[in-house]
Amino acid sequence: MPVVSAKGMLVDAAVHAYAVGAFNVTNIIQMEAVIETAVERRAPVIIQTSMTPTKFLRPEVLVAAFRALAAPAPVPACLHLDHCTDAAYARHCADLGYTNIMFDGSKLDFEENVRVTREVVEHCHRLGDITVEGELGTVSGVEDQVRVAENEAELCDPARSREYVERTGVDLFAPAIGTAHGVYLTENPKIDFERFARIQEIVNGNGIVAPLIVHGGTGLKPEVVRRLVALGGAKFNVSTDLKLASIDATYEYITAHRTEYNPGKIDSAAKQAVIARVSYWMDLLGCAGKAP
Ligand SMILES: [Zn+2]
After folding, report:
1. 143 CA from centroid of ligand 1 (Å)
2. Full DSSP string of 222-286
């Protein structure tokens, strides 16, 4: 299936009340695990890389690997740059073949966020079918180099969400509603469902303009995830969960086979652990079986 941009995929999800999993990867083995699971579960899928692994592996390498894996796969797949705070780097990754870019201007004041996001949107749309995700408010926790203390997190102002979407032209919209990056510090994080519902009504009430994105999927209880999907969450970002699975499986394998020294078997154990988590999320989000 051709590599696609995220907008069409997520409009379908929003209309049919399911969400697409957007899985952060830090290496090619995890990328393979996510795409193989998507094929197995017949799910549309988004692969994401945040800035540090993107710079470490290099975007041209990630794009080449993604195309080699996704082009022959019989499911729609996107390659998304996650939480890019550098507009020039966002444009660079779009030029190299990322199909979707998140420009994170959440640390900027509203006018500056609008101005810079708009520039990234114009660049990506000029290149063709490359879609852009913007964020309003700040998601707490640590995402790559973007750190926000939980008490500092500023939730998205519904009144400004339509203005932000209209003035920036973003294709996808991530409003901060109390979800957090990393591991939740409390068993019952305060998720502002009412705010999320209001934003969905304001932005997408008269037809889907910019599907809503939920950051910080890891650790949310299944009922919380289902409720956010029912309220219009069309893309769920899952990062820490895969990191924990991969690192725990690696540690367990090495501990149990201390004298083996077989990197392929360690990689395989990590890959299986990632596959299990991705499969869990695809069931929970309702995207399994939704590939056309
Ligand atoms: Zn995020």
Report:
1. 6
2. HHHHHHHHHTTEEEEEE-HHHHHHHHHHHHHHHHHTTTT--HHHHHHHHHHHHHHHHHHHHHHHT
Three-class SS state of 213: strand
Count of structural domains within the chain: 1
Q: How far is the CA of 8 from the centre of ligand 1 (A)?
A: 21
Q: Which residue has the tokens 């500092």?
A: 152
Q: How far is the CA of 126 from the centre of ligand 1 (A)?
A: 25
C-alpha torsion sign, points 35, 214, 7, 117: negative
Token pair 């051709």 in the structure block, residue: 2
Q: Is residue 249 part of a domain?
A: yes
In this structure, is residue 257 part of a structural domain? yes
Q: What tens digit of pLDDT does each residue of 170-201 get? A: 999 999 998 888 888 777 788 999 999 999 99
pLDDT, tens digit, for every residue of 71-116? Answer: 999 999 999 999 999 999 999 999 999 999 999 998 899 999 999 9
| Domain of 135, in residue numbers | 6-285
CATH assignment at residue 273: 3.20.20.70
Question: Rounded distance, CA 84 to CA 128, Å?
Answer: 20
Q: Residue 254: CB partners within 8 Å, gap ≥ 6?
A: 266
Does residue 13 fall inside a structural domain?
A: yes
- How many angstroms separate the alpha carbon of residue 276 from the centre of ligand 1? 22
Q: Which residues surround ligand 1, an ion (CB under 5 A)?
A: 143, 215
pTM score, whole prediction: 0.95
Catalytic site positions: 82
Is residue 20 in a domain? Answer: yes
